[in-house]
Amino acid sequence: MPVSRPKSSQRPNIATGKQLLMDAAARLAARQGATSLVLREIAREAGLNHNTFYRHFADLESMMQAIVVAFGEQLRQGLSDVRATLRPGEVPTQKVIGWLFDFARSHRDVFIVAMRERFGPPGPVRDAVQTLLAQLTTDTQRDLTMIGFLPDIDPQYTRRLLEVSVNEVFVHCIEYLEEPRRRQELLGRTQELLETMLAGAASLEPRARR
Fold this sequence. Notes:
By secondary structure, the chain is an all-alpha fold. The chain has 9 helices and no strands.
């Protein structure tokens, strides 16, 4: 059965003014935190009149939510594209997580903001980040199943393992952004985590079913 994927890994076609505001807000939020954002400051950072904001967004929260959603679309498509190049049985860490590290570095501001908001106050922005992480887990399970990398065990059990793995990978991404020289070490740690979890999954699954 064909697997449906997002249609493009390119940046969504967003009006110039809207994109300028989103980029400016991400830069400021990465430096000073999303809760301290001020509309006029964002507009000034974007080089726009502050009235332009309301042509695109109802409020600051809806703008931050839109930033996370647009970022997530690019991230999901890019990861699915690179996983599609894996050969059956190929260990995905170097290629897939290496791509993710590069993506995080080229989208540093939004990446940092998203990870902060994940542990921020309840609301649409945190919900958007949690939804993105759940989608990434689903995508990972789908794609790795297609290439035969995952063990043949209960899919729900596998998903729980992948949820842990996805969360840990994003911690490693933040560590990489802080210390790029640790790239190979972090890739090795990610691979070790994934392989250890999956290697033990088959033997531990009967206990998980109890």
